[in-house]
Design brief:
Layout: H1 7-12, E1 20-21, E2 26-31, H2 35-52, E3 57-60, E4 64-69, H3 79-94, E5 98-99, E6 106-113, H4 116-127, E7 130-132, E8 136-138, E9 146-151, E10 162-167, H5 170-182, E11 186-189, E12 197-200, E13 206-210
Length: about 230
């Protein structure tokens, strides 16, 4: 039986206060202050992950450590991710390391295509990405952003054919939206707010700002799971 959980279930679980579910898993960023502290933190995460046989993606920088959790066998979050998130936060507290939830985000590049079968192979080749599902391309070493080839019925002369999707936590989206508007942006579509807003810069280049899936009760069907 699958132990998959929804983003809302993950966020409501005990021990996940440091974490946010944005786009492609649960993420937490930690401020370590120096490289040696971060390396020690990563070493303890590694030991905990080996003990649980459940391994997160960990990015070590000079003054920070970023962690992403997802259960690849179910293509989404699971009870194992809740347990590991809690364990990693416990390690951080013991080492005197603070989480910075306000810095968490996930970015996706979206490309409109009328002829999906013609466009997908080009981007797969030029990026050296791998197909994941029918329309997604993923970096095989999980460093670059996901690329989504979006099927459209006809060319759109009124907008660019590429845009960015920026996934931020629900508790950060209002501030991010206000900052973007103050910086000269404008809302071009809020039909789906508060799920996401489509913004444009002063020259019309678009970005979708989305607090997806941080507090969503939605849980994908078993057949929709991807790696």
């Amino acid at each position: 039986m699958s132990d998959r959980v929804s983003p809302k279930q993950f966020r409501q679980a005990e021990g996940t206060d440091d974490w946010r579910v944005v786009g492609d898993g649960a993420r937490a960023n930690f401020t370590t202050g120096d490289f040696a502290t971060g390396a020690a933190f990563v070493a303890e995460i590694a030991r905990a992950a080996d003990a649980a046989d459940h391994h997160p993606d960990v990015d070590l920088r000079y003054g920070s450590v970023m962690v992403r959790l997802i259960s690849h066998d179910v293509g989404d979050l699971s009870e194992r991710d809740i347990a590991m998130a809690s364990r990693i936060s416990q390690i951080a507290r013991r080492l005197g390391i603070d989480a910075t939830p306000g810095t968490v985000q996930s970015i996706q590049i979206a490309i409109d295509a009328v002829d999906l079968d013609a466009v997908l192979p080009f981007w797969e080749a030029v990026l050296a990405y791998k197909r994941r599902g029918g329309e997604d391309l993923a970096d095989p070493i999980a460093v670059g952003p996901n690329v989504w080839i979006q099927q459209i019925d006809a060319p759109r002369s009124e907008r660019n054919t590429m845009h960015a999707d920026v996934y931020v936590p629900r508790d950060q989206v209002d501030a991010r939206l206000e900052a973007a508007l103050t910086a000269g942006g404008r809302v071009v579509n809020d039909e789906y707010a508060p799920d996401y807003w489509t913004l444009a810069d002063p020259e019309g280049n678009e970005v979708d700002l989305a607090p997806w899936r941080d507090d969503s009760p939605w849980q994908p069907d078993e057949d929709a799971a991807t790696h």
